[in-house]
Amino acid sequence: MQLRKNLEDVKNSYSKEEIVSAIDITVNSIAEFYASIPEEFFFTTPKDGWAPEKNVRHLTKSTLPIYLGMKGPKFALLIFGTNKNKSQNMEAVINLYLSKLSQGAGVGIFEPFTPSAKGNKEKKEKLISSLKESGMNLKNVLDSWSEEELDSYKMPHPILGNITVREMNLFAIYHFFHHTNNVLERMKQV
Question: Please, are residues 131 and 31 in contact by the beta-carbon 8 Å criterion?
Fold first, then answer.
C-alpha cells in the first residue's frame, strides 16, 4: 500500500527541511487517500472506531493547536520549559506515543464530537480541504523557526507531556499515518 511506503519515506525525517518535505508528502498522500474513499463509507461509523470522516475531523482539530502554538510568539512557549538536548527522532516519539496508548491514553478534548454527518461529496471535499489546509499551515509556519529553536522550545502534548517543537512536528506527521492506517484496517474488514 502506498501509505505505508510514504510513512517509510518520511520516518527518518529530522532536519527542518526534511520535516517540511515530510509534512508535504504526508498531507498530500493522506488527503488523496481520504478522497478515494466512497462517500457512503467515508461517513459510516464502523462497529468499533470512527468513520473515516471522524478521523479527518480529529486530524484537523489536533493539528490546529500545533500550528497556533508555533505561529504565536515563541516566548509564550517558555512556560512549557526549554530543552538543552537534541530532540528525539520520530521512532522514539512513535514508541513513546504507542506506549502511552497501550497504557490507556485517549484522545481527550481532541475527540471529534460532531456526529457523523449525512454524507455527500461536497461535505467530504470540504473536510478534506480543511485537513489539507491545517497540514499546509503547519508546514508553512516552520519557515519562521530555526533548527536550534525547534529543539529549544517545548509545547504541551496531551499524552506525551511537554515535548520539543521538533518532536511535536514529528508526532504530527506520524499521527496522520496512525489514524489513516486505522481506517485502512477497518476497510479491510468490510
Answer: yes
